[in-house]
Amino acid sequence: MSGDVCIVGVGIHPFGRTDGRSGVEQGVFAVKQALADAGVEWPQVQFAYGASDAAGNPDSMVDRLGLTGVQFINVRNGCAAGGSALFSAQMAIKSGEFDLGIAVGFDKHPRGAFNALPAEYNLPDWYGEVGQMVTTQFFAAKIMRYMAMFGISQRSLGMVAEKAFRNAVHAPHAWRRRPVPLDEILEAPLVSDPYTKYMFCSPAEGGVALILASEKKARELGKPLIRLKAATMRTRPPHSFEVFAPSVDVVEDDTRPRGTASRIASAAAFDVAGIGPDDIDVAQLQDTEAGAEIMHMAENGFCADGDQEQWLAEGRTEIGGVLPVNTDGGCLACGEPIGASGLRQVYENVVQLRGDGGGRQVQGKDGAGPRTAYSHVYGAPGVSAVTILER
Q1: Fold annotation for 5-110+206-221
Q2: Domains 5-110+206-221 and 131-202+229-390 equal at CATH topology level
Q3: Tens of pLDDT, residues 298-333
Q4: Is 387 left (phi over 0), alpha (psi -120 to 50) or beta?
Q5: Interval 251-282: pLDDT, tens
Q6: Which residues make Cβ contacts (< 8 Å) with residue 129, sequence separation at least 6?
Q7: Among 14, 108, 111, 308, which is 20 to 30 Å from 334 by CA?
Q8: Is 382 within 8 Å of 123 (Cβ atoms)?
Q9: DSSP for 306-352?
Q10: CB contact set of 197 (below 8 Å; sequence gap of 6+)
């Protein structure tokens, strides 16, 4: 295929809680919105990749969209499911076999923590019996280690959460849209030390759909070209400390950062796109908990480990900063419907590149809006997907 893969349509069902509407129905809502945005009809769609973890098989939505016989493949890959669906969809177009397709993700999780089972991740029963399958426990242990190694304060965790809720005020699709003062965040009840209740995202509901096209097809449709310059997906390397890891490997030098799925997915994406971290104008980083955003700033190459304290103090990740991060409030404010969450990041980046962000719109380095946008999703048991968009 000549030219880039482009995103020509986007749709989203608001995140949060929607009683009376199933996860599949929320996915259908997003697909119909994306089709209208792209100016195409469902029978024109040549293939689909759909992601869901707990709300049913995505391909069942053809009952509501139309029985066209379309090729529809279901994807399940933890919190990286949506990113994996997008990766697969862009590969289908890059192969030259198709020129119009869709990546869709949705979920509808019950209230409370995710109920992952040890056997699903090749772990012994004792791992769950001691509480480590409750991800709040694991994430707390991981950030405590990181804070000790690189001098990150609990106040910085609170600043990440404060920014998330402040940004979400201007995002109609976000769940938690009330600003929360830093003192309230820090003084809230602890869930797992050092995290208070405002520093974790919640399992949620929602749906997102993206219409992808070859560059030739995008030009035929007359759509502004939002180019997918890179889409990568990687699993964990040796010695990484990932979700549901039963232990930390002993290494000769533990003063240096370890390799992670995010580090190698990020490096691969920058290599494919032919640019570097300094060229990115806006970024959406996985923030299942406040510390994840901090760690992922470094793992994705935007700063060195430990520099996040200064970045946050100087407002560098704010809407008007040098690298606005999680402009719609991220997982902390939107919640995390697993199948849709990674696609929400890309949806938000398309909104930003189109200049449709309203009160959360990034102005970019020259005041003409962002030209490049980065998204990063991470999930168990150590998988990561990265995309880079350009207009």
Answers
A1: Peroxisomal Thiolase; Chain A, domain 1 (3.40.47)
A2: yes
A3: 999 999 999 999 999 999 999 999 999 999 999 999
A4: beta
A5: 878 777 788 999 999 999 999 999 999 999 99
A6: none
A7: 308
A8: no
A9: TTHHHHHHTTTTSTTSSS-B-TT-HHHHH-B-HHHHHHHHHHHHHHH
A10: 188, 189, 190, 191
- Residue 160, pLDDT > 80, answer yes
> What is the sign of the dihedral through the CA atoms of 295, 296, 299 and 305?
negative
CB-neighbour burial class of residue 110 (10 A; exposed 0-12, middle 13-18, buried 19+): exposed
CB atoms within 10 A of CB 331: 29
Percent helix / strand / coil, the chain, rounded to 5: 40, 20, 40
3-state secondary structure of 184: helix
CB 266, CB 386: distance < 8 Å:
yes
Tokens, residue 44? 């024109």
Is-contact 334 174, C-beta < 8 A?
yes
